[in-house]
Structures are given as structure tokens and as C-alpha cells.
């Protein structure tokens, strides 16, 4: 539930590639605790906007603030330290190692022991190990992955791999979570399970979702932004956005990505 403060604010975002205007004049304000969707037809500029909001691409014009801080010029790792995590369209996991090790790798920046401390099993190593196990237990339970924690990640079913990508992001307990096409490629059952996962993790977090599955947007988002041809069309509840005449017109005759 939103508390009225703004977690992510964008003003006058534009992105030009030579003479091509991928985005032009997009503004939004996502409140803390809100689940916010971004939709649009193929080529609308959704992915470009998402990359700009999460700090992976710099805008040609405009500003982005995260938790009140202008992120212009900050590299992604610095933005991540402000309490931001992101998943990607292509599932980013370490496929050749266990589910648990994927979470361990995700938490390495929070651990304080040295290599020598690990070899000597120092007190710092013991504290980090205990803290990691407690956090991993909680995240695996939340993501429904506790029973497969020792399984090699690339042997998981596709929907479970997508869950693992979210679990990796949760290891840093982010205040803001960007989900890029999280339900892409899932069957109906996997999508339903994934929606339930996002509902479980949403309390106390701000979540932004780019998604083509409108059922997911309707199920999760309180508001959504529709963009077409790089231009903002409307921000409103999903039902109102999806019945807006300009949104309907933008989707007519286009293939669903």
C-alpha cells in the first residue's frame, strides 16, 4: 500500500538515437509501496523507459529521481546501493551452480569477511555465514524454492528460474524492485504462481513492471502508464488504461510481443 511519498519520479524524459526519438516527454511519479505497470505495443519505447528509470541508460533530456535522489550520472551499481534491484527479460542466473549458491553470489557485497578470514573460519566469516543462511532460508521460503535449494539452477523449470531471478534480487531486501517482462514465456499455471509470488513480496516495496500480459498488469498494478510511439498516453488504473481510446488504437493491428 502506498504511503503517499514518491519513490520514483521522472520529468520530461526523452531519448534520441540520432534522428530517432525513442522517447519524448515522458513524466511519472510512482509512490512508495505502489505496484506500477508500464505497457505499450511493440516499439513503443517501454524497454528504453525502463532502462532509464532503473539507471541502465542515460536520457537525452529529463531527470530521474529515486527515493528523492537525482540518479543522473550514477552507474548502476551505485544506484543499486540506494535500495534498488532489477530483473531482466532474459533470465539472469548462474545456471551451472545450485540455487543456494545463486543467492550466495547475490549477497557477496554485504559480507564483511576476507578470503583469509574464510580460510581461517574467523568470527567475521561465521557471522556472515549465519546471516546469509538466515536470509537465504527466508527468501527461498518466500519464493517457493526451499525444496530445490541444492538443485542446479539450469535444471529448474522455466517458471522456477524466473522465481530464482526474483529471489536473487530479494537477497538485498530492495526498497524498489524493477521487473522486466517477468511473466514472458510462462504458461498459464506458471503465470498464476508468479503473480502470487509478487503479491507476497510487494508489501513494503515499490515495484515497477514492464509486461505484455495484461492479465498480470490487471492482477498486480494499482496504476499503469501506457506509451505509444515514445509518447505517454495515459496513467490510470489498468482497466481505464486498457479501455482508453488512444491505447486501443495503438494496439490495433499490432502483434502482441
How would you describe what is shown here?
The protein has two domains: 1-83 and 174-257, Rossmann fold; 94-173, no CATH class. It is built from ten helices and ten strands. It has helices at 46-53, 76-80, 99-106, 115-120, 123-143, 158-170, 188-201, 214-220, 238-242, 245-251, and strands at residues 6-17, 20-31, 35-39, 61-66, 69-70, 84-86, 176-180, 206-210, 223-228, 231-236. A six-stranded mixed β-sheet has the order 6-7-8-3-9-10, with helices on both faces. A four-stranded antiparallel β-sheet has the order 2-1-4-5, with helices on one face. A hairpin with a 2-residue loop joins β4 (61-66) and β5 (69-70). The longest helix is centred in the middle third of the chain and has 21 residues, at 123-143. The two termini are 30 Å apart. The model has no long low-confidence stretch (mean pLDDT 87).
SSE arrangement:
Blueprint: E1 6-17, E2 20-31, E3 35-39, H1 46-53, E4 61-66, E5 69-70, H2 76-80, E6 84-86, H3 99-106, H4 115-120, H5 123-143, H6 158-170, E7 176-180, H7 188-201, E8 206-210, H8 214-220, E9 223-228, E10 231-236, H9 238-242, H10 245-251
Parallel strand pairs: 3-8, 3-9, 6-7, 7-8
Antiparallel strand pairs: 1-2, 1-4, 4-5, 9-10
Helix pairs in contact: 3-6, 5-6, 6-7
